[in-house]
Specification:
This protein is α+β, with helices and mostly antiparallel strands. It is built from five helices and six strands, in the order E-E-E-E-E-H-H-E-H-H-H. It has helices at about 65-75, 80-95, 100-115, 120-130, 135-145; strands at about 10-20, 25-30, 35-40, 50, 60, 100. A hairpin with a 4-residue loop joins strand 1 and strand 2. Helix 1 (about 65-75) crosses helix 2, helix 1 crosses helix 4 and helix 3 runs antiparallel to helix 4. It is elongated. Bound molecules: zinc ion.
């Protein structure tokens, strides 16, 4: 944590206690460089990753929605439900930017499924990818399966 007075990154916590009925942690910090003290608050936030749609609309990333799509693709496949949950709830931490396109979400999910199960992967690819035409889709499948000539 940087010192707000001198911008030194050499600061340390001198005191830490809950505040706002435990919804936040209040910490007093002291700067080793200028010796000034300041307060930080740590609280959980619902700030979500933004997903931009092809239409230009943006919405907050919804892990439950992604989970539903993945579980449909994984229906009756030997895939552990927990693997899917770990993936969707950790998804935001895999993305380094505050915003991602819906296509990119799909692409990442595809990569994930590919490592798990080929059938689930193909199902997801067929249903959720925004390919312009069936030809394009088949081309993609052939490419992925390495069967294109
Ligand atoms: Zn300082």
């Amino acid at each position: 944590m940087k010192c707000p007075f001198c911008s030194s990154s050499e600061t340390r916590v001198v005191n830490s206690r809950p505040s706002d009925e435990n919804s936040a942690i209040r910490r007093r910090r002291e700067c080793d460089n200028c010796s000034r003290r300041f307060t930080t608050y740590e609280r959980a936030q619902f700030e979500s990753l933004l997903v931009s749609k092809r239409s230009g609309r943006r919405e907050a990333f919804n892990p439950d929605k992604l989970y539903n799509k993945l579980s449909i693709a994984c229906n009756k496949r030997p895939i552990n439900e927990k693997q899917l949950r770990d993936y969707v709830y950790g998804f935001e931490d895999l993305v380094q930017t505050p915003e991602i396109s819906s296509e990119e979400v799909g692409r990442k999910a595809l990569e994930f499924l590919k490592s798990l199960d080929e059938v689930a992967y193909i199902r997801f690819l067929s249903v959720y990818s925004d390919f312009e035409s069936a030809d394009r889709f088949l081309e993609e499948i052939n490419k992925e399966l390495g069967t294109s000539s």
